[in-house]
Design brief:
It is built from eleven helices and 15 strands. It is α/β, with parallel strands linked by helices. It has two domains: 127 residues, 3-Layer(aba) Sandwich (Rossmann fold); 155 residues, Rossmann fold (3-Layer(aba) Sandwich). Strands 9-8-10-11-12-15 form a six-stranded mixed beta sheet. Helix 9 links the parallel strand 11 and strand 12. Helix 3 runs parallel beside helix 4, helix 3 crosses helix 10 and helix 3 packs across helix 11.
Length: 299
């Protein structure tokens, strides 16, 4: 049995294991949280190096890919820099491929249409998702200044402004402590409804679930959420807020949709390659063979 282990900076409450058989081969997919303990996370990577078939890096990103530029988060690199044998996947390949496929699938099956307004809390880190909506003619706003940097309470539609901010700031941002930019550990479980107006203006809220969840308003009647990974408890919370549809870009495994890093690590284990050795076309071909479709939960 091939073993895929995702080690996450996030909460242990989100831990999950699933076994599956693909093309006659057995896989164990496992997610292990560390409750924000970066030292423990680093130790787990080093202790299991060479003992599992692929690692997922969860709770923060190794790479931030914006258009044709790629930046490396210092905190993430320092966490896995002693891993010498087992491939480490942070989900970048899935973000570039499967997320765009999910948008097209939802439109083709009538769940969404270009008349709907989209909010992506952090579009710079999810540029390929943002671009998938834009390519299909959706009106998209991004909330990076508010959600990521805590500046203001406004979402913007100008991609030129996003470029103006991204190119000079990203080389600096990737050197900052990741906890300054992203909910980690127990902070992932606390909701602070700071940006209600941004949510209410949108029909579709898309992107990283921790950014979406962190600022959920009390009422989300008729909203559609397209995100990456979600637990059963979080689905209940969204239903209580009257969300119309929750869709995940990754499929369901034993009642849970895993994060993009797990899916990419699964691909690495199947193909016995490192993430950088797998092209976008190869990812797409593999996901098509596996018949990966978005998980759709209607309220």
């Amino acid at each position: 049995m091939k073993h895929v282990m995702s080690i996450s900076l996030g909460s242990t409450k989100r831990n999950h294991r699933a076994e599956m058989n693909v093309f006659g081969e057995s896989f164990l997919l496992e997610r292990v949280g560390t409750d924000g303990d970066a030292k423990k996370m680093k130790s787990l990577f080093e202790e299991n190096d060479g003992k599992v078939d692929a690692f997922g890096l969860g709770g923060f990103d190794l790479y931030l890919c914006y258009k044709k530029k790629q930046y490396v988060f210092r905190d993430a690199y320092q966490t896995i820099n002693n891993v010498k044998i087992t491939p480490v996947a942070d989900g970048t390949g899935v973000k570039k491929t499967l997320e765009a496929v999910a948008v097209k699938y939802l439109q083709d099956h009538g769940y969404i249409n270009p008349s709907m307004k989209v909010l992506i809390p952090s579009a710079i880190s999810r540029y390929f998702l943002y671009n998938a909506f834009k390519t299909l003619g959706y009106s998209v706003k991004w909330g990076d200044l508010a959600f990521t940097l805590g500046i203001g309470k406004k979402a913007y539609s100008s991609e030129h402004l996003m470029d103006f901010l991204a190119y000079p700031l990203l080389p600096i941002i990737v050197k900052l402590p990741f906890s300054w930019l992203y909910p980690v550990g127990e902070s992932q479980d606390h909701i602070v409804s700071n940006f209600n107006e941004m949510y209410h203006e949108a029909d579709i809220i898309a992107g990283d679930f921790h950014y979406i969840f962190k600022h959920l308003p009390p009422d989300l009647t008729n909203k559609i959420i397209l995100t990456n990974t979600i637990t059963a408890d979080e689905i209940v919370i969204l239903k209580e807020r009257n969300v119309k549809i929750v869709a995940t870009t990754t499929p369901e495994f034993d009642g849970r949709s895993f994060a993009t890093n797990v899916i990419e690590a699964f691909a690495c284990a199947m193909l016995q390659k490192k993430p950088g050795e797998i092209s976008e076309d190869t990812f797409l071909e593999l996901f098509k063979k596996l018949d990966f479709k978005p998980r759709i939960i209607e309220n």
